[in-house]
Design a protein that fits this description.
Strand order of the largest sheet: 5-2-1-6-7-8
Largest sheet: 6 strands, parallel
Shape: globular
Order of helices and strands: EHEEEEEHEEHEHHHEEHEHEEH
Distance between the termini: 16 Å
Structural class: alpha/beta
Number of helices: 9
Strand content: 15-25%
Length: about 350
């Protein structure tokens, strides 16, 4: 059974961080050092090529272990931040050993036997996990769903229209390196007067993106799906429905890549069951856990990625009632895609599980 090998510090549960050396894994270790110390042993696991490295967590140097079945011996909870195919293979292995897996990949999000959890919105869902796995939503969904969940609880959501403006760090370190390379290629050049200027300056160096992202916006994220939709657009639709418990919610999404390193932004048109007021919406958002209301356009106050980066909450501004629909609100949200969008939500779910085990 998991936890059978607990040490004394450790009458508290043992945690494994799988993918500890990656971009989100690095943020996870920072968050573990910043949050209340509820864990006994924290075990760091990564690919065999990273085994033996030492990383700081809670002020101590911890040696990274290779990802093997034996690495999960005595573990109570494992946070996975690895590619889909790695999670698909190894999360069931860990779960079979009695480990509760909190998975940050897309491998299990839409599995009906795997809850998709945002602790501020549906914490109860974490308790029912037939496969021993809890899924973490995609970073774009997480950048808006905490604010949207608070409004839904009060007004009852009926329809959602969203455009996302997604940072390059969602594509990992390769995405960030690509933007930085492209910045160096266009620095000092004359651009924007002739067709093809930007493409000629950047050449074929588009990295993980279909078009140059520097000085550009790219209306695509993910892989092709039917009828012209992208996988990330369909994902945001499906995840919002599952988290909010609204299986038939009409959702329209356009995902756009922008030249921002970290923090996703979204415009949201949300239609509710009855008439809404901006004043009541402000009251809800101002007191909602995990939300910062930053909304005074006349004073130049509204969220931008530069405000939200490195912070935990969802930032909300540009709050308005729709011009032609008294049941709808317009808002702009920003959320750090590496913190709440990935590492923080995973850690919060793990903390819910730890409270069960205590």
């Amino acid at each position: 059974m998991a936890g059978a090998a607990r040490t004394a510090r450790s009458a508290r549960p043992t945690l494994a961080v799988v993918g500890a050396t990656g971009a989100v894994g690095t943020v996870m270790l920072q968050i573990l050092s910043q949050h209340a110390d509820i864990w006994g042993e924290i075990r760091l696991i990564a690919s065999p090529r990273s085994a033996g490295r030492k990383l700081a967590v809670r002020g101590e140097e911890v040696e990274v272990m290779a990802l093997t079945e034996d690495a999960f011996a005595g573990v109570d909870v494992a946070m996975f931040d690895v590619p889909d195919e790695v999670s698909a293979r190894w999360a069931p292995v860990a779960a079979a050993r009695g480990v509760v897996v909190v998975d940050n990949s897309g491998a299990f999000r839409m599995d009906p036997d795997v809850p998709l959890v945002v602790p501020e919105v549906n914490p109860h869902a974490a308790r029912i996990r037939p496969r021993g796995i809890i899924a973490n939503p995609h970073c774009t969904t997480l950048s808006m769903i905490v604010a949207l969940g608070a409004l839904h609880a009060e007004f009852g959501l009926r329809e959602l229209v969203v455009s996302s403006y997604q940072a390059v760090s969602e594509a990992g370190r390769d995405g960030v390196r690509t933007l930085r390379r492209q910045l160096s290629l266009v620095a000092g050049t004359e651009l924007g007067t002739c067709p093809g200027d930007l493409r000629r300056a950047v050449g074929d160096d588009t990295g993980p993106f279909p078009e140059p992202v520097v000085l550009n916006v790219v209306p695509w994220a993910g892989s092709p799906c039917e009828d012209g939709w992208s996988s990330e657009e369909m994902q945001l639709r499906a995840e919002s429905r599952k988290i909010l418990g609204l299986a038939a919610l009409p959702v329209a999404v356009t995902c756009v890549r922008v030249p921002v390193v970290t923090t996703h932004s979204l415009t949201v048109h949300a239609r509710f069951e009855g008439e809404v007021t901006v004043n009541r919406a402000r009251e809800i958002l101002a007191t909602a856990p995990g939300v910062v209301l930053f909304d005074d356009p006349a004073a130049g106050e509204f969220p931008t990625p530069a405000d939200a980066v490195g912070t935990d909450p969802t930032w909300v501004g540009r709050l308005r009632r729709a011009l032609d629909d008294p049941t709808a609100l317009e808002l702009f949200v920003c959320g750090d895609n590496l913190r709440k969008g990935a590492a923080l939500n995973t850690a919060q779910i793990a903390e819910l599980v730890a409270a069960e085990l205590s």
